[in-house]
Amino acid sequence: MLTTETRDRLIEAALAARQWAYVPYSSYAVGAALLTASGRIYEGMNIENAAYPMTICAERVAVFKAISEGERQFQAIAVVTSNGGSPCGACRQVLAEFGLDTVVLIADGEGHLVWETSVAELLPGAFTPSDLDK
Ligand code: THU
Fold first, then answer.
1. SS3 call for 88
2. What distance in Å separates the CA atoms of residue 80 and residue 99, rounded to the nearest whole number?
3. What span, in angstroms and rounded, lies between the C-alpha atoms of 55 and 25?
4. Ligand 1 pocket by Cβ (under 6 Å)
């Protein structure tokens, strides 16, 4: 369970990160802030490309930054968009790799929380590392 303070801090970080989104094609800026088990926060924002499929989502930028610094366990991720849009399927899968219990905070452009959920709820029946042992 996240404290109100942690929730607010993560949403604030995602809002701040969103200003760095590189979105010349969609104009749909997304900011993310990922809280690791160690207590660090990694920010991410979407980065688009003239070759459209090369675009990377804000959530995956945050996850990959954390993983590249040796982090493996996450507590929560906040995702901010203008309209409270929810994480795409690819990002759900990437988050699922590192735990189904990660809390997902979805907020709008004013920082209002529109949905507090979890990776498990966003990706029922997820394919996870344990499936490879079967
Ligand atoms: N986008 C994200 O950053 N995260 C998501 O989970 C959904 C989509 C980005 C990708 C693209 O730059 C823009 O939003 C419109 O799809």
1. coil
2. 21
3. 10
4. 23, 26, 28, 30, 46, 48, 55, 57-59, 87-88, 91
Q: Catalytic residue numbers?
A: 59
Cα–Cα distance measured from residue 62 to residue 120, given in angstroms and rounded to the nearest whole number: 19
Residue with CA at minimum distance from ligand 1 atom 2: 57
**Cα of 57 from ligand 1 centre, angstroms:** 5
Residues 81, 101: Cα–Cα separation, whole Å: 22
The ranges of the chain with pLDDT < 50 are none
In ligand 1, which atom is closest to the CA atom of 59? 4
Residue 2 DSSP SS3: coil
For the stretch 46-75, pLDDT in tens is 999 999 999 999 999 999 999 999 999 999
Choosing from 30, 82, 123 the residue with most ligand 1 atoms within 8 A of its CB, the one to mutate for a pocket test is: 30
Whether the predicted model's global pTM rises above the 0.70 cut = yes
| Torsion, Cα of 107, 109, 110, 113 (10° steps) | -10
Cα(55) to centroid(ligand 1), Å? 8
Residue 129 token pair: 């590392």
Question: 24, 71 in Cβ contact below 8 A?
Answer: no
